What we know:
This protein is α+β, with helices and mostly antiparallel strands and 393 residues long. The chain is 55% helix and 18% strand. The chain has helices at 2-6, 8-56, 61-71, 105-122, 144-210, 218-239, 251-263, 288-305, 358-369; strands spanning 80-84, 89-93, 126-129, 135-140, 247-250, 270-276, 283-286, 310-319, 323-330, 373-380, 384-392. It has a five-stranded mixed beta sheet. The chain has a four-stranded antiparallel beta sheet with strand order 2-1-4-3. The chain is elongated.
Amino acid sequence: MIPIYSQKNRIKFIVVIIALIIGAATITYTNILVSKLSEREQELVQLYAKGLRYMINAPSDDNIVFIEEEILSANTTVPVILTDENENILDSKNIDFPENIADDPEKVNELLQRQIEKMKAQHEPIVVPWAEGSVNYVFYKDSDLLSQLRYYPYVQLMVIACFALMAYFAFSYSRKAEQNRVWVGLAKETAHQLGTPLSSLMAWYEYMKVSPKFENEPIVAELWKDIRRLEVITERFSNIGSVPLLRDENILQVTQNAINYLQNRISRKVEMQVVTTFSPDITAKVNVSLFDWVIENICKNAVDAMEGKGSITLKLILLGKSNIALDITDNGKGIPKSKVDSVFLPGYTTKKRGWGLGLALAKRIIDNYHQGRLYVKWSEVGKGTTFRIVLNR
Length: 393
């Protein structure tokens, strides 16, 4: 499967070429059939004209009856209009008249004149010599069958294109769903594997807490913080693939708590602050564990962009009556305009180490789980970047 997937662009190109070849062959073959059928219809009209010529010089009434019944009446598909040399209509055949004008000679004549113009655009009229040196004209156009056959390959190609487009989207959705199942399975397995060492650490913590040997040792308190952190990480991985529970939380307090934890675990040369433009008791619907993860991923990327030195500002803003925005601004390297749409793609990273999943996961958490939005609000190379998170109140 890996070699095939790695060659997916080449395979797509080959499939497109094959589809174009099939389409071209279909059009060519159909056009050949149309040409042959058109020749047959022209021969039929020529026969109709010859029958008219013969009737002029027919030696007997029996021959006239035979020609009229066997030749002239044999044409049941090709629309034909017979006129004199001044294009005055003498007769017509296989022309459909609307019911509302069938009994109105003037309107019938107008319709036939319009049909003559259309016929002229398709075929040259056939000249039929008549009595005393005069001539008649036989105008005709393609039958309905020939017209349908002429446009059939294009309709067929449109149908094939629609099915191909549907198949493409179905394949893309299926592939994306399969990838999501793999990530969900990996996340839940990671959470499961973390359970065993976490239980062991909790047991050691309980032992050290009651042991006189470790009394008043700061390492015990730090161990408890790390255990709590591992529990939060385990909960995050467990929540992936499940519908998280959203609660009305004090968004200022949640944001401040996330920053307080990060502040002691990043470079001391990075200043972090939370600013709000509204009262501190405003709430938003969030899952605290997952929302902390989003802030952590964005801020850690900002620290890397600033190379461990600079400032990060988190600003809370009300957006109307139903939304809250959190703008996270750094003064790092910034993102080139050509890369702004790529930063949320899985695997995209500018670091030598890393999977490139932090921002992709953050966007999924906000867009899919919180029904909000995460996007790059502003970025300029050499000046910094602002990520905006939009949440529901």
